Automatic annotation (TrEMBL):
Binds 1 FMN per subunit. The keyword Oxidoreductase applies. One of its GO terms (molecular function) is pyridoxamine phosphate oxidase activity. This is Pyridoxine/pyridoxamine 5'-phosphate oxidase. Residues 158-199 form the Pyridoxine 5'-phosphate oxidase dimerisation C-terminal domain. The keyword Oxidoreductase applies. FMN binds at residues 45-50, 60-61, 66-67, 91, 126-127, 171, 181. Gene3D superfamilies: Electron Transport, Fmn-binding Protein, Chain A. SUPFAM superfamilies: FMN-binding split barrel. It is an enzyme of class 1 (oxidoreductase). It comes from Lysobacter korlensis.
Length: 199
């Protein structure tokens, strides 16, 4: 068992995340999440990292949108951060299995969102065909009336997804493409290993 290597990787992530903030990255929490459908078609989009700890990396979304459907059918994801302002440029790649966060955790995060964003989560049928912006704003107005004078509850199908890291790679840019890559990999028995990769 070498869980200390996982701790080392998570600590490295924390240091780089702080550096990204200090370096003035527009949004260090922005990450690309790649999913694959059951018929193995990949797709990618940007989401925001809302929580990370030893259990994994959490973002929030609709379960019935495209990524939500992909991840329920095939619960594996890849996350990608690119922070060009950190050091000579840093890229972090995280891959692993995905699980839905607890209702309590999702409720707690949803409660912190601006009311407008809470209402938007009710009004949006994520990834479905939208006939016009007018239709969307009518739905929003309907939702506003529905929740007038009371707290907006979390839509049941809007929740957090946690990527449990199985592979974490740190890529550090260097001159002449002589980049430095460190790959941390978790084994089936919970042991972690670490090695460098050619750039
Ligand atoms: C900077 C940025 C941050 C975003 N953050 C999120 C997010 O945290 N959750 C989310 O569902 N969509 C977020 N989006 C929208 C997604 O990129 C995407 O359009 C949406 O989730 C639908 O993706 P899907 O059809 O693959 O499910 C964000 C977009 C951008 C550009
Ligand atoms: C559709 C959607 N859902 C969720 C989020 C997550 O971020 P927040 O909770 O800060 O709105 C975003 C961020 N852009 C988003 O666009």
């Amino acid at each position: 068992m070498t869980p200390e290597l996982l701790e080392e990787a998570l600590a490295t992530f924390a240091v780089l995340f702080d550096e990204a903030r200090a370096a003035g990255e527009p949004d260090p929490t922005a990450m690309v999440v790649a999913t694959a459908s059951l018929d193995a078609r990949p797709s990618a989009r940007t989401v925001l990292l809302k929580h990370h700890d030893a259990r994994g990396f959490v973002f929030y979304t609709h379960l019935d949108g495209r990524k939500g459907r992909d991840l329920q059918a095939n619960p594996h994801a890849a996350l990608l951060f690119h922070w060009p302002r950190v050091r000579e440029g840093v890229q972090v790649r995280i891959e692993g299995g995905v699980e839905i966060v607890s209702d309590d955790e999702a409720d707690a995060y949803f409660a912190t969102r601006p009311r407008g964003s809470q209402l938007g989560a009710w009004a949006s049928i994520q990834s479905e065909t939208l006939e016009s912006r007018e239709v969307f704003f009518e739905r929003l107005a309907h939702v506003e009336r529905e929740f007038e004078g009371r707290d907006v509850p979390r839509p049941m199908r809007w929740t957090g997804l946690r990527v449990r890291p199985e592979r974490i790679e740190f890529w550090y840019g260097a001159a002449y493409r002589l980049h430095e890559r460190w790959l941390y990999e978790g084994g089936l028995a919970g042991e972690w290993s670490k090695r460098m990769l050619y750039p």
